[in-house]
Amino acid sequence: MVQVFSRIRAALLAAGCAAALAGCAGSVAPEVQRLPERVELSGTFYRGEANQSGPQVLASLLSQQGIVITPGLLEKPLHLPQAQDKLQQNLQNLAREYGMVVYPLDSRLPALLTQVAAGYPVMVRFSEGSAFWAEPRYAILSGYDRKKQTVLLRAGMNRRELMGFGAFESALNKAGGWAVLIQKPSQVPASVDRQRWLKAADELAQAGQEQEAAQARKALGAQ
Prior knowledge:
Residues 1-22 form the signal peptide. The protein is α+β, with helices and mostly antiparallel strands and 223 residues long.
């Protein structure tokens, strides 16, 4: 009799787990469900923990755009380690100095994964640590697995850091919900917000890259 009850309890637990998993699968946003099931982008990645990994991530993305660069060459123009509190803005300013469009994204997971599915790695800032101690960290969102509900980050010393959808969104929002594309002026993002792209082009022109800004506007007009 005890064995019968044990089997019934095990069956109920299994059914409960299956229902929970089904519920989780159903919670994926419709925009995500329409994307390819699995994407993993390749490209240069510089490992490193220093300075919240900001120089390493920016150097990785610039290298993927064909620019010959290393993280060490970015530390001085980023005013590190003194200007840690201004790192987010300085990363954007420096990317523009290299002729790149800095296109801000909504922090919602569907918006980010849409760009990854289109072949564009996303620069993100997320909170890493525990409830008692956490610090911001920069990373490249380089892939996802819709079935497993995980994202793939290239962060710190880890080229393939996997994180669940919910945990990633929470970590992203805890660090301010900041995510951007570092694009060539000819690379118009997927589902582009025209006004946002034009504003990014204006900011590129203000950084002295007027020719690249004009190219960005022209690329948008060709859409």
